[in-house]
Structures are given as structure tokens and as C-alpha cells.
User: Which sequence fits this backbone?
């Protein structure tokens, strides 16, 4: 099963992203700073075949935060260059925008300093990168299926002092 989204034009600047590491659980959260009405919430849980998972928290079908708690195997690359990605509005249509689990192959690659994270959800090569926030991009197939997720400018994990 895949996660399919609708892409719509966006105006203005992409909203900023605030990152938070939970040092007790190693959970990384990326919170999108966005205004808007307090609309119904939902979530999509992306579950990797290896037990890894990423949760997309939604408001009115739009991604408002991302939580990563169980990591897939990580491939470190000396350099990882994200695509530019046009700023758009990405909407997860119902029923997925309510609460859904999507099982998908998942892998993670990071750059040397671990500031760029790229989650690959499928092996598709014909994807388009779209920016949903200042530091969040999605790789989207022509069908609208999400094939990847980029987190940029991730702060380092806080070391125990």
C-alpha cells in the first residue's frame, strides 16, 4: 500500500520548521509552524518492513509534524544533496487523512554530519520533489504516491552532558 497525496499551488513563503529531539527515547520531531483553524486532526503511520516507522501528523489533511521513533538501517553518505523542490500545498485526502497505517519498504540515508535525512519509501526514480515547509520535502511519483521524505537542517542529537 502507498500514501497518495494531492498537490495544489501554494502562495507566500514556505512555513518554517522547528526540530526537537527527545533524548530519552531518541524520537525526532519536526514541527511545521503554520497558522490556520483548529481543524480535525489525523495521522498517517508509515511502517517499514523492518519495524521502523515515521508518523505524519495532519491538520485538514496537511502535514503539521513528523515524528521518527524507530529508525530503519541508516546509510551514511559523505555528501547528500537534496533537490530544490517547488513550494506547494500537499493534501492527504480522506480516509488516509483521518488515521491510517501504511506498510512500505523504508530506508534512510544521511549526510556525513547527519543534518540531511532522506527516507526512501519506494524504488521509484520518476519522482518530483516538492517542498511542504522550509526544511521538509517530499518525493512524489506522477501518480501522487509519496516515494520519499527529506528533512533538512536537522540539529545534532544532544549528547549527554
Assistant:
Amino acid at each position: 500500500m502507498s500514501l497518495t497525496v494531492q498537490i495544489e499551488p501554494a502562495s507566500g513563503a514556505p512555513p518554517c520548521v522547528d526540530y526537537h529531539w527527545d533524548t530519552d527515547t531518541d524520537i525526532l520531531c519536526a514541527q511545521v509552524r503554520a497558522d490556520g483553524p483548529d481543524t480535525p486532526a489525523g495521522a498517517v503511520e508509515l511502517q517499514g518492513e523492518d519495524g521502523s516507522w515515521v508518523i505524519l501528523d495532519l491538520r485538514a489533511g496537511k502535514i503539521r509534524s513528523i515524528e521518527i521513533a524507530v529508525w530503519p538501517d541508516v546509510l551514511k553518505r559523505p555528501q547528500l544533496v537534496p533537490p530544490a523542490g517547488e513550494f506547494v500545498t500537499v493534501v492527504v485526502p480522506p480516509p488516509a487523512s483521518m488515521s491510517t497505517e501504511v506498510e512500505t519498504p523504508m530506508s534512510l540515508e544521511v549526510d556525513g554530519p547527519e543534518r540531511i535525512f532522506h527516507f526512501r519509501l519506494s524504488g521509484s526514480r520518476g519522482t518530483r520533489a516538492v517542498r511542504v515547509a522550509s526544511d521538509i520535502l517530499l518525493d512524489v511519483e506522477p501518480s501522487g504516491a509519496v516515494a520519499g521524505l527529506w528533512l533538512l537542517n536537522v540539529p545534532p542529537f544532544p549528547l549527554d552532558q
Summary: The mean pLDDT is 89. The chain is about 0% helix and 50% strand. The two ends are 43 Å apart (CA to CA).
